[in-house]
Write a structure and sequence with these properties.
This protein is α/β, with parallel strands linked by helices. The protein has one domain. The protein has 3 helices and 4 strands, in the order ββααβαβ. It has a 4-stranded mixed sheet with strand order 1-2-3-4. It is globular. Pfam families: DUF6572.
Length: about 120
């Protein structure tokens, strides 16, 4: 499960701290590398984000996750590496666009000594 498999919803969760929300989480374990690698990485993220948006807007989410009914939906990218500046801008723009559709979006940097099994 990660952005390298664009057709799968990686993780979903209802946080104890916000039981009126449902998180759809995608895992991004990839390094950003040099600027040339950014485009390929962004394309993977864009494909995965589009999968999540389709999952929500087609209402498949409510068939697959009945507990999603009535919840505030949030897409979260769980990254293992800090975002380059232009990618941070890209994520802010995605957040604005999704917010207009009633979908939350954020990025969480998960720095650990050992990456989770992906």
């Amino acid at each position: 499960m990660s952005i390298t498999n664009p057709t799968v919803i990686d993780i979903w969760a209802i946080p104890k701290s916000a039981p009126d929300s449902l998180l759809l989480i995608m895992v991004d374990p990839l390094e950003w590398g040099d600027e040339a690698a950014h485009s390929e990485h962004l394309l993977l993220l864009q494909e995965k984000i589009n999968t999540y948006i389709t999952f929500i807007e087609s209402e498949e989410i409510y068939r697959e996750i009945p507990d999603a009914c009535g919840k505030q939906l949030m897409i979260r990218v769980l990254g293992l590496h800090e975002l380059p500046e232009q990618v941070d801008w890209f994520f802010k723009r995605i957040g604005e666009l999704l917010n207009e559709r009633g979908i939350g979006f954020d990025f969480e940097l998960k720095v650990t000594e050992q990456a989770p099994g992906l």
